[in-house]
Structure formats: C-alpha cells, structure tokens
Amino acid sequence: RGKQGKMVDYSKWDNMDFDSSDEEDGGAAAGLAEELATAAEGPPRAGVLCFLHENGGSGPAARAAFGPLVSHLEGLGFYVMFPTAPAQDYAGGAPAWFDEGGGREDVDGIEEALDDAYGKVCTACAAQGLPPTRSVLGGVGAGGAVALAGAALLRNKCAGIFSIGSALRPSSFIFAAGGLCTTRNVMMVHGEADDGVPVAAGAATSEALQKMYPEVHVRFLQVPRAGGGLGGDLLAPVLDFAQDCAAALVGPDVPGRLTAASMERAGRGSSGENKAPEEDVNAASRGMAAGVPDLSGYEVTWEVLQQGGSSAPSLASFRVPEGAEDILCRFPVIVNGGQFELRRGHLPGEITCDFTSPKPEMTAEAIALRLQKRLQDPAPPGMEACCVS
After folding, report:
1. Taking a C-beta distance cutoff of 8 angstroms, is the pair 107, 169 a contact?
2. 318-339, pLDDT tens digit by residue?
3. In this structure, is the dihedral angle defined by the CA atoms of residues 339, 340, 341 and 342, taken in order, positive or negative?
4. Number of alpha carbons in the 13 Å side-chain half-sphere of residue 79
5. Which residues contact 345 (CB under 8 A, 6 or more apart)?
6. Strand 160-164 with 350-355, pairing
7. Which residue has the higher pLDDT, 1 or 321?
8. If DSSP states are collapsed to H, E and C, what string results for the chain?
9. What is the C-alpha end-to-end distance of the chain, expressed in Å?
C-alpha cells in the first residue's frame, strides 16, 4: 500500500474461451436459454450490467434495494449481476472492496477489487456469448469508487461506468495512470444531503476525470434533498444511463425511459419499499409455458458454498435452466417446516439461498428437489397466495 499503483494486466480476459461445453449440461442450458428467449419474445441481449455494493453491504442487499427495477434493466437487454465483496478483517469481517480508512490510499485493494469484479463480468459475458466490451460497471459508495477506477484501468473494456455517492481521493493513483480511456461515457450521481461522502468530493472527482479524459463524456448529477444509499431519486438517472448504454450497444429501439414517476408506478418509491408488479408474474408464467420443452427430466444440482450451522448462515448455490432464474425465484420455497427466499445468482443458470440450518446439505438438497418440481409448473394459478410444501 502507498505505492503509486501498477496497471492491472487485463489481457488475460481478451481471448477468453466462450465455449461452455466443459460445464455440466452447458450445451443443454444454452439451447434452453435460446428457446426461452424465443418464447418470451424479449429484446436482444445488450450486455452485462454489474453493480458493486457499498462497503459493509452485500450483493443480495443491493439487488433488494433495486427491487423490481432489476426487471426493467433486464427489459433493456442487460443481464444484471450483484456480486458480493470478500469479507475483510479491517471491516470487522464484513464484505468490503477496499480499505477506505487510513492515511494512505488502498491501491492494492482497489486493484484487486476491480480485478475480481471484472473477472466476474467477463465470465458472465462469456456465458451470454458476448465480448467483455458489452458491459457496464457501476456501484455505490466504495463499490462506485472501484467502478470509477475502471475508467483508467479497464481501458477499452467497458461500454459505460457509473457511480452513486462515490468519490476518489484528490491524490488518487488513478489520476496519475495516464494513457487513453475509451469508455463510452461516465456518470456520477450524488445526493445533495449525502453525509457519508460530501457532494463536493464527488464533484471534484468528476472534474478530475473529465480533465484527465476530455474525450469521455463525464456527467455529474446532483440530486436535490437526496441523501446517501440507493433511494429512488438516485436510481432514476442510473436507469436512464443504462438505456443510453443499451441504445449504443443494440440500437435506439429499446423500451422507454424510467423516471421517478414511473418508478413510483412500478411500486418502488423513495421510501425504499419494493412491490413487484402483479403483471410480471403472469408474463413470466406465459414465457415458461409457451413452446418450452418438457423440463421434468432436468436435474437441479446444488452446492453448499459457505458452511454455517445452527447459529451461522449457510449459502447454497443451485444450477437451473438458463432463463428460468427469475421465475423460479419469484416465490419462496417451503421445505422441512421452513420458508426459504431464493435469489438469482451471479451467473446465468444460478440461484442462491442463504439459510440457517444444523444440516446445510440436507436443507440444500430439499430445496433443489422443490426447484426441480417447480420447473414443471413455475407459476401455477393461486401461487401468489400460497406455497405448498
């Protein structure tokens, strides 16, 4: 730490093997995804959008803050991912991208976080059959600072970069990196009343980046009366930015913009409550039912990624047909007398679940069996009101 910084070698991602045949059922999953996309008649896949949470947060918490807005981003053609940072001792064991404290900039931490996040982006792009250039990287707080560092370190590897309530140090090694930046555009959103990262610090970072890269359009939006975090007023311009990126990648024929008013209509107000639109359930059910091959023989595989126990949470990952993740996650699973919330994982065809159980493997296996049954009828009539174990 305290060094002037080194340029991260991202050439290892330039010639990624996009062939997924070495993964279990990779070819079958790809074929199923294509058929699901045809059945749903969705927009062409624009790219991958990766959002990095703030220090002390998590990917699932950030996804929950976005709420039904995730489906709007997916409607623009993005595969949306919310990775979780590694647990760090300096953060008391909480997830953190880099050490924000101390007198010196955590150069190693920023570079390692960017390397980790971009590696996940490239993996997701490969799974979607897309080059890494069709990606958008963003984040809030420290996660946004990592994304902003990508403006200097990723070079030609992002279609857009955005941040919410983020700033870089005035003496950051990023500003001494030199070279060209061919990221299409950068946007920084900052709440006027943010008491964590002063709005003046965000504005100074924006000015420094614009001066460093005059060929890049750096936008700085100050949101009146908004604080920190991920309030609805802060998310609205991010969704406009995502639409601009999607239009640049797949053309202007993409769904209409979202504004604060339309976000209210979608059930996501500034209060932070999340209410999924009822029509989404019906649309999802139609997408699974229309012309999709019989999935009764598909075997849902599982893995316990993090062992917990009776007092500590466990984390399990489930492999499901690509394209069916959101439908399978829409309702909780009830098994062994407990109710378990499901979340879309970091990669296509992945569902995750965190739970507390004295026998994590037994619980994960029971959830996998229920998901396998749910594939036969993912959203039957009346499922909104009941879940049968």
Report:
1. no
2. 998 888 888 888 777 777 767 7
3. negative
4. 31
5. 317, 318, 325, 351, 352
6. unpaired
7. 321
8. CCCCCCCCCCHHHCCCCCCCCCCCCHHHHHHHHHHHHHHHCCCCCCEEEEEECCCCCCHHHHHHHHCCHHHHHHHCCEEEECCCCCECHHHCCCECCCCCCCCCCCHHHHHHHHHHHHHHHHHHHHHHCCCCCCEEEEEECHHHHHHHHHHHHCCCCCCEEEEECCCCCCCCHHHHCCCCCCCCEEEEEEECCCCCCCHHHHHHHHHHHHHHCCCCEEEEEEECCCCCCCCHHHHHHHHHHHHHHHHHHHCCCCCCCCCHHHHHHCCECCCCCECCCHHHHHHHHHHHHCCCCCCCCCCCEEEEEECCCCCCCEEEEEECCCCCHHHHHCCCEEECCEEECCEECCCCCEEEEEECCCCHHHHHHHHHHHHHHHCCCCCCCCCCCCCCC
9. 53
Tokens of 337: 């007398």
Token match 């420094």: residue?
Answer: 208
Contacts of 217 (CB under 8 A, 6+ apart): 184, 185, 186
Residues 222, 190 contacting (CB under 8 angstroms) = yes
Q: Are 323 and 344 contacting, i.e. CB atoms less than 8 angstroms apart? A: no
What's the Rg (C-alpha) of the chain? Answer: 21
CB 189 within 8 A of CB 237: yes
CB atoms within 10 A of CB 130: 19
Question: CB neighbours (10 Å) of residue 120?
Answer: 17
Please say whether the beta carbons of 188 and 163 come within 8 A. yes
Beta-strand relationship, 217-223 and 301-306: unpaired
* Cα separation, 28 vs 21, whole angstroms: 9
Q: What pLDDT, in 10s, does the model give residues 66-88?
A: 888 888 888 888 999 999 999 99
Interval 168-194 mean pLDDT: 85
Alpha-carbon distance 199 to 71, whole Å?
A: 30
What is the Cα–Cα distance from 315 to 97, expressed in whole angstroms? Answer: 20
